[in-house]
Design brief:
Strand content: 5-15%
Distance between the termini: 26 Å
Oligomer: single chain
Number of helices: 4
Number of strands: 3
Order of helices and strands: EEEHHHH
Strand order of the largest sheet: 1-3-2
Largest sheet: 3 strands, mixed
Radius of gyration: 13 Å
Shape: globular
Length: about 110
């Protein structure tokens, strides 16, 4: 799946996946294969959970982590969906290997 990429200069992060789009902070990031793959992994996760439940679980996971760690960065990096995306962002073939629901292994 080739996701449409939109440039959003005021984006609070370098990249973000909001189905079916990849949002990037600037044009230069279109060349960063790791960030594109990272966001494509998030798009797959969103499809796996039929989109809306992904956002709910993402937020609940963040809030639980924030209560646990009392620190935004650690809470964010501990979100199960982020763990999968960061772990495999450099593996360009990860999504081609049919690794559906790979995030479950990281719970």
């Amino acid at each position: 799946m080739k996701a449409p990429i939109l440039i959003v200069k005021n984006l609070p992060a370098a990249g973000m996946a909001i189905f079916p789009f990849i949002l990037l902070k600037n044009e230069r990031l279109k060349q960063d294969q790791d960030i594109i793959n990272h966001e494509n992994i998030h798009l797959r996760q969103q499809l796996e959970l039929l989109i809306l439940p992904f956002y709910i679980l993402y937020l609940v996971n963040y809030l639980i982590n924030f209560i646990r760690y009392q620190e935004h960065r650690k809470a964010y990096l501990s979100i199960v969906f982020e763990k999968e995306a960061y772990h495999y962002e450099s593996d360009i073939n990860y999504l081609k290997k049919q690794n559906w629901y790979g995030w479950i292994k990281l719970l």
